[in-house]
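G.,

No rush on this.
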Amino acid sequence: MMVNSPKIEIRNLYKIFGSDPEAALKKVKGGMGKEELLAQTGHVLGLQDISIDIHESAITVVMGLSGSGKSTLIRHINRLIEPTDGQVFIDNEDALLLGPEALREKRRTDLAMVFQKFALLPHRTVLDNSALPLEVRGMPQSERHKEARVWIDRVGLGGYENHYPYQLSGGMQQRVGLARALTSNSDIMLMDEAFSALDPLIRSDMQKLLLELHVELKKTIVFITHDLDEALRLADHLVILKDGKVVQQGDPQNILVNPSDPYIEAFVSDINRARVLRVRSVMTPLDEKFKYAGDVSPKDTLESLIALSEGDTSFKFRVVDGEKPIGQIDMQDLVKALVPRVSASEEQNL
């Protein structure tokens, strides 16, 4: 069976900020860490040996604390930042070999970006802000306005076409940013902390909208966040950075159940596991000798099963994907999965 190449491939990417990054790179590759590099050379290690496959029609979430390198990373994809070393391939094309005009065309047609601070033009209406990507491509006003209106309606801003950014709430402004990205009709959407400036309820609404649009449009999305709840809600593939390095990446459910590092364990320790863990992460092989209390989906949250069973831990449910039975889930296994794994350091202190 043929396996499709990733939409975006990042290979052995390094970024060092300073006056002589090439000399600093040699020290990093020789084993020097971020703090030592800064102390000895004054250079800042932004990214260290990053390799990630970003697959088509998936949401890849890159998360980490402030200073972990996540925003630096996403800006390498559209080359707002140039790497010190490494490669970035988009559709099997080496993006680092693109000349100025080819890069501008790539940004205009294939890459849309949604920023944390909205980045709307204050003197332009919602309609003109949304239509901007098509204006840059030279599309006549009537055509670009027609296309922009479709996406303005789709993000819930119908009727606000002639308003200016200052007349909109933060959540509404971010919807304009999303409409602008969708109007571009780009295959790839880069979203840098796109929802982090929003109030919790509005943020939740925007996450829901993004997931609905993703089901419909199948865009390849790279989403940057520092919020684990948001990452677990959105991600098909989760990448966690610390000090410019990948600490762990993979299926977010697997990372939550099997953290590979004390840093990750600390991240996931306070999460509401019942709300974010799904049946597929806890289910076991089907055993037809049991009498099942009912059928559930592998995508159901453990929280929904707790409600369904009314807390009765004697229940077992059959897991059905579509019409196909694929496993079972025992409520006693579910309860065990709700307890975070104890790290080695915590075990020593017990």
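When you get to it, here's the other one too:
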Amino acid sequence: MADLLTDVEFDMFRKVIYDESGITFSETNRSILDSRLKERLREKQLSSVQDYYKLIMSNPGEMKTMLDSITTNLTRFFRNQPHFDALIHYVVPHVLENKKKNGDTVVRIWSAGCSTGEEPYTIAMILKDILPPPYTFLITASDISLKSLMVGQQGFYPAVRVEGVPEKYLGRFFTKTDSGYQVNKDLMSTIRFDYHNLRNDSGARNLDVIFCRNVLIYFDEAAQLATINRFWDAMGPLSYLFIGHSESLFGMKTQFEFLKTDWACLYQKNIKKDV
């Protein structure tokens, strides 16, 4: 089958995708949208793009499925190690120092755009390893892809997918099976996987750390700014934001401060300097 979408239909779909998710499709990645929609038409046994458009506009469940199908879920354990080094050596010590002042013992983290769960499980392994008592942690892991969230919730990965996990963590936090590795229940219990569209307010507040890496690159400037502002509202008075190494808030009118550590660059919310 040749190109599925006419120019008019391409504009229709990229507008609804942008309105629903903030994801921007340009001419350069038009073929991706085309191929994913072909799959959905075959699955739903529909013969025309117009019929499928009517379906997603009248069926919220199919809208979610369509958005799921167009997302790219590329991730791995300990991806971009310098970020985790900064978490260990800079962020966690500063978060704990602040918590000592207010008597809070829970570190709250959001892994936004968590894909199949490797990022939140990486964070959980690190915190299990380095947090001193009485401190505990809670991680919320969210994504727009229900299929990816199910993988994360199940916590099972083929052997090739755990190649980046250090041996000391692999033996401690995973159980080897004939077909791969299962995350142990103790670690799984520290993470709550949840469907969330970054176009909306998550409802979270007073978070200490947000990881949202390699997600903003799919948004245009307006959607990026709106997302970043919602992160600000969700974060505590002294908190930290990690974005992808190819992403930046430079030139964006946000209240976050750029922070360069010995390990990696990130962003900080510090309301003391706003008053």
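The CA atoms of residues 117 and 155 lie 8 Å apart. The beta strands are 106-112, 136-143, 156-157, 174-176, 181-183, 191-195, 207-212, 235-243, 257-260, 265-270.

Enjoy the weekend,
O.
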